[in-house]
Amino acid sequence: MTIASALISKLPLVGTTIFTKMSALAVEKGAINLSQGFPDFPPDARLLERASQAILTGNNQYSPMTGLPILREAIAGLIERHYDRKVNAFSEITVTSGASEAIFDAIAALVHDGDEVILFDPAYDLYEPAVTLAGGVCRRVTLSAPEFRPDWQAFSELLSDKTRLVLINTPHNPTGSCWLAEDLESLWQVIASRDIYVLSDEVYEFIHFSESAVSVHKHTELSKRSLVVSSFGKSFHLTGWKVGYIVAPAELTVELRKVHQFVSFCTATPLQQALAEHLIALPEASTGLAAFYQQKRDVLRNALVGSRFTLLPCEGTYFQLLDYSQISDLDDVAFCEWLIDQVGVAAIPVSVFYQQPPKDQRIIRLCFAKEESTLLEAARRLSEL
Ligand code: GLN
């Protein structure tokens, strides 16, 4: 027996993520990297100073498994200020190593063998593999371009006695669309009488460009059935810190923590300490985030107005979708490879987020969490096509 012949992959259809591939290609080719979503500017210097101090003053051992109490209290304050929701810092908030871990823990804790999980297509890449590893099966509802709005009739037709979890994401990666209050209400109406939980990925919660964007935190009934995921990576320009948190009713939190304690046990203590102090010192720190990113979105959009790309709507996140049908017949993966090679701009092909990409859809995703000069130079290159 060789190792290879005995090895049966648990994720046979999964390769290395598109983010790893495209960022590596961008480095190799020296391209402007608008593919993987991360800022090319530094976080608030005061936060960096707090992290350095936290390390130097001895906050270097395990934190409590559920997260530092001072951070959980600060998160509870943030949620109360932004959403007018009171959550119990001790029984309903768990600090995790990024939103990724929170999502993984929640799925592992709630999905049993053969359970069905509903996703919206396109969906962020980590959801389906996490469901598969838990023994669940994904069912997808299509979100159609250019608005990518949920179709509640199609959604309700997908429900079955096996449906255990619905995974939602607003503001939405990769499309930049945002749900409205009526979407959350429709979701609630369809699932209210069933034993279904909701996992709401809200990592871009502070990056939306209209007042009508919503959070599950604001829906009283739905929030009692839901686990809501946030990421300090997005809210404080610190994607490499990998600190996130998940808010869920106490009964769900008990189950979630059974997984979390064995996946990571706890998250980097000095980073938790720094974030707690920052939130206490600057309680409104995330309030200006939407305006900050709206300005970047508009710089990119305005610079592409004369190009042959068609700009899709962008209501939230730091991603802008572009339709390149007037430029090329290549499929989006091939087009992105060509773009890196010939134009020096790295983007993400949107088809990779689909179970079944729409035929002949030619859309790429650009990340605008970049300095204005980076965005303008990328747009200049793209406008030459
Ligand atoms: N969420 C980031 C994106 O959509 C990627 C994070 C990662 O590489 N895992 O670009």
TrEMBL record:
Residues 31-382 form the Aminotransferase class I/classII large domain. Its cofactor is pyridoxal 5'-phosphate. Pfam families: Aminotran_1_2 (PF00155). Keywords: Aminotransferase, Pyridoxal phosphate, Transferase. GO terms for molecular function: kynurenine-oxoglutarate transaminase activity; pyridoxal phosphate binding. Belongs to the class-I pyridoxal-phosphate-dependent aminotransferase family. NCBIfam families: PRK09082.1. This is Methionine aminotransferase. It comes from Marinomonas polaris DSM 16579. The lineage of its organism: Bacteria, Pseudomonadati, Pseudomonadota, Gammaproteobacteria, Oceanospirillales.
